[in-house]
Amino acid sequence: MDSSEWDTSALWDISDTCGHDGVPDPPWSCVAYAVHNFKNLYLAMRAFRDTSMDDSCEVFFGVDDDLSCSWPLSDTVEGLNRISNQGIWLTRWCLQDSLSPWYDAGLSDFAFSCCKGYITLEWKIPLLNQCYDPPDPSDIGPQYVFVCVTMGCVGDEIGGFLSYYDQSRGFLGWWPRDAIAEDMPGYYG
């Protein structure tokens, strides 16, 4: 997306002001953007305090597709994702009693850059409409989001978690701030 398309997106401060790594960051030092159409959810982050891609940095995001605040007993779409500036998108299923190992998400629609003196990441999450032609659950994973675009259909709100981690600086972003860990959807916003 170009910069004008991000102008109309939702913007919020995800700075780790609580210091989940022991070092609080100032407000508005890490921000997130979100915009969607009926096919994709587009997300972006700017980590203003991370000024180099020389070391490893990662974004973690969790998705609770139905905003139930808990992981399901059996499902293949709710869980965690991890994108690194090393060109890797990993994902893991989360169930009430277990977490799967991290595995390759099979998606590559993301890009890190450092062209303005700070790290920026943009990525695209495919939206799957559960009301029309739901996909075979064995073919999908937490790197997709189930949605519903018709009134009265369950699934049109999701819960989410975002964090940004830099190898040399620690967590620079963590949202919601009161989330204890990325795998606890009861704290998702």
Describe the protein.
- The protein is mainly beta.
- It is 2% helix and 41% strand.
- It is built from 1 helix and 13 strands; from the N terminus they run αβββββββββββββ.
- The strands form 2 sheets. Strands 4, 5, 6, 7, 8, 12 and 13 form a 7-stranded antiparallel β-sheet that branches. Strands 1, 2, 3, 9, 10 and 11 form a 6-stranded mixed β-sheet that branches.
- A hairpin with a 3-residue loop joins β2 (30-36) and β3 (40-47).
- The protein is globular.
- Residues 148-155 have low confidence and may be disordered.
Task: Pick out its properties.
41% strand; 2% helix; 1 helix; 13 strands; 189 residues; mainly beta; seven-stranded antiparallel β-sheet
What would you say about this model in short?
With 189 residues, the protein is mostly beta strands.
List the helices and strands and how they pair.
Blueprint (H helix, E strand, L loop, with lengths): L2 H4 L3 E4 L16 E7 L3 E8 L9 E8 L14 E6 L3 E8 L2 E2 L3 E2 L5 E4 L5 E11 L15 E3 L11 E8 L3 E6 L14
Oligomer: single chain
Helix fraction bin: under 10%
Q: Judging from the principal axes of the Cα atoms, what is the shape?
A: globular
Using the CA coordinates, give the radius of gyration: 16 Å
- Helix tally equals 1
Low-confidence stretches: 148-155
User: What string gives the helices and strands in order?
Assistant: HEEEEEEEEEEEEE
